[in-house]
Design brief:
The complex is a heterodimer. Chain A is mainly beta. Chain A has a single domain, classed as TolB, C-terminal domain (Neuraminidase, 6 Propeller). Chain A is 8% helix and 35% strand. In chain A, the strands form seven sheets. In chain A, strands 2, 23, 24, 25, 26 and 27 form a six-stranded antiparallel beta sheet that branches. Chain A has a five-stranded antiparallel beta sheet with strand order 1-22-18-17-16, with no helix packed on it. A five-stranded mixed beta sheet of chain A has the order 12-13-14-15-19, with no helix packed on it. The radius of gyration of chain A is 21 Å and the shape is globular. Chain A starts with a helix and ends with a strand. Chain B is mainly α. Chain B has a single domain, classed as Four Helix Bundle (Hemerythrin (Met), subunit A). Helix content of chain B is 78%, strand content 0%. Chain B has five helices and no strands. Classes of the chains: A mainly beta, B mainly alpha. The interface between A and B is medium-sized, with 31 and 28 residues.
Chain lengths: 439, 142
């Protein structure tokens, strides 16, 4: 009996030891063109470090980098996640949240996840609208706000192309006529194409980007689980970027194996398509770094079978593994740090921030839940030269977390406005921030 | 309190405690069967079933453990048997907790340990129930 007692103590000690998956590497080890990828870590108790959403105290703002200043462009929004700038300077903001998903995370763990989401400020009904913000006097604060489009279904990506405004709802791409200067669109949209949604719809945000000639749309569709947890059939047409014919809706996969591609942008020097991608969770605080990468037509980027090229995913049933695909998997161009949730992507120039931000990518990092200590919760700038990342990132906006790890805001979408300032959607702070050079 | 019980008539096990002792066994077994089904099919719903069944089993194990702890404080004769039942329940609870946490892993990462853990847990739960149902009385025999 004494031995049983000792065994029980040992078990308890093991349990306690298993709680502490802390990052062993500095965050910077998972940043850059060749990130350090340590062996996967499996802990008995999952690493869950959810930043409780507390919102900004009155008058508080994130912290801008030296030489920059940040002001609220618009406040009091309802989960503003994504941004688009119209030619006349009007700013569209998608006020949106997850749709009703009866079969997302049906397990016991899913029940806990929904609680965590609530704590982190998610899990509330979606406003399902696009709001137009107008700063007519150019003082950096939007003085008019109108409901531009209502009755959408968890909208996310928005882009104007040749007199047509494309909106990516979670289940379809819609096209609306836009003549210029309107503050609301009342006509119903034309459905361009249905998008993979369904009762699971794990990564529900769909982004889009029109090709420069306006004939096609790139549509980013995230995976239906972390790493195939809902079965391989649930991942049909998921974790990829589609190329959609804007007129007919005909589409083909442009690139696959991208777990959750969200930000989409053309690199200005080369015209190449780049995407910001969220990689998989729950194999340790140092794995797997999120990334941004140029996207090759027909390229396969690993998910779920591997990451960063040949690093095989052990959580796939041996019978389902695809060594043939892994052998061809492309390693992404630039790692953005493990669990940072790098979602927003916008290329410079952003003249209102000054010449040092002329060439490079702004990345909105929504912040981690599966890393201890937390990562992300900031907006960074990755300098580019010759169409490639050229150097370590610099912080643009920080200070979204309190000293005790609660989140006052979380940055998501980023966009350069007509005046050359950087706009940042903050979906926990319910604010759109505007960053310019300090005066 | 114990003194009066010793002189009283022999009483059967309290029916609610009997229920708590036995209730976790079929649930852990259901978890084991679901794990085996997941191992054969890779259909994620089986892994979800297993996780919920084991979580349900833990509720009854926890309540039985609490009851056994109180019985342990009140028991005088046959203290060793009560202690054995308590220890087995404690082991069931610890194993079930590990099993539950293990089921929080993603996709195939729960294999092949999930059915092994669920099998061991089921076995210990069965032992705890057998020992408990054959020895523990709320009143004591003289």
């Amino acid at each position: 009996m004494a031995r049983t007692h000792r065994d029980a103590c040992l078990l308890l000690a093991l349990l306690l030891a298993a709680c502490g998956d802390r990052a062993r590497l500095p965050l910077a080890a998972g940043i850059g063109p060749t990130p350090t990828l340590p062996p996967p870590v499996a802990t008995l108790i999952p690493t869950v470090k959810v930043a409780k959403a507390v919102h900004w105290p009155a008058g508080a703002t994130p912290v801008a980098a030296p030489g920059l200043r940040v002001e609220a462009f618009a406040t009091g929004l309802d989960h503003p996640r994504w941004l688009a700038v119209l030619p006349n300077g009007d700013v569209l903001v998608a006020e949106t949240n997850a749709p009703v998903r009866p079969r997302d995370n049906p397990g016991l763990k899913g029940w806990f996840f929904k609680m965590f989401q609530k704590k982190a400020g998610g899990g509330v009904p979606s406003a399902n609208r696009i709001t137009l913000l107008r700063d007519a006097d150019g003082d950096g604060v939007a003085e008019t706000r109108t409901v531009f489009l209502a009755g959408l279904t968890s909208p996310f990506g928005m882009q104007l192309s040749g007199g047509t405004l494309y909106v990516a709802d979670t289940d379809a791409v819609l096209a609306f006529p836009y003549r210029g200067g309107e503050t609301r669109i009342a006509v119903p949209g034309r459905k361009v194409v249905d998008l993979p949604a369904g009762p699971i719809n794990h990564h529900w945000t769909k982004n889009l980007l029109a090709t420069p000639d306006g004939t096609h749309l790139f549509v980013a569709i995230g995976s239906n689980s972390n790493v195939g947890d809902n079965g391989i059939p649930a991942e049909t047409e998921r974790a990829r970027i589609w190329l959609v014919d804007a007129a007919t809706g005909a589409h083909r996969p442009f690139a696959t194996g991208l777990r959750n591609p969200v930000g989409l942008a053309f690199e200005p020097e080369t015209g190449a398509l780049w995407t910001a991608v969220n990689e998989r969770d729950e194999i340790g605080s140092d794995l797997v770094p999120d990334y941004m990468t140029s996207v090759r037509d027909g390229g396969f980027y690993g998910w779920p079978f591997s990451y960063y090229g040949p690093h095989v995913e052990a959580r796939i049933r041996p019978a389902d593994r695809r060594p043939d695909l892994v052998a061809a998997a492309i390693a992404p161009d630039y790692a953005l740090g493990a669990h940072t949730a790098s979602l927003g992507l916008a290329f410079g120039p952003a003249p209102a921030l000054g010449p040092i931000y002329a060439r490079g990518a702004f990345v909105g990092q929504h912040g981690s839940w599966n890393r201890d200590p937390p990562s992300g919760y900031k907006v960074i700038f990755v300098p580019f030269a010759g169409g490639r990342p050229a150097g370590p990132p610099v912080d643009i906006l920080t200070g979204f977390l309190t000293a005790d790890g609660k989140s006052m805001g979380r940055p998501v979408g980023v966009a350069v406005d007509r005046s050359g300032a950087l706009l940042v959607a903050d979906d926990v702070g319910n604010t759109v921030w505007r960053v310019t050079a300090a005066r | 309190m114990a003194a009066s019980a010793e002189t009283g008539p022999a009483r059967p096990i309290h029916p609610l405690f009997a229920f708590l002792l036995a209730a976790d066994v079929p649930l852990f077994l259901g978890g084991l069967l679901s794990d085996l089904a997941y191992g054969r099919t890779a259909e994620p719903q089986w892994a979800n079933f297993a996780a919920w069944l084991i979580a349900g089993a833990m509720v009854f194990t926890g309540l039985a453990l609490l009851w056994a702890f109180i019985a342990l404080l009140l028991a005088r004769p046959r203290w060793g048997w009560v202690l054995l039942c308590f220890v087995l329940l404690l082991a069931t609870f610890a194993l079930g907790l590990v099993d539950n946490l293990h089921h929080a892993r993603d996709a195939w990462a729960i294999m092949p340990a999930a059915p092994i853990l669920s099998g061991i847990t089921s076995l210990v739960a069965l032992l705890a129930a057998a020992v408990g149902l054959s020895t523990i009385r709320t009143g004591n025999r003289t």
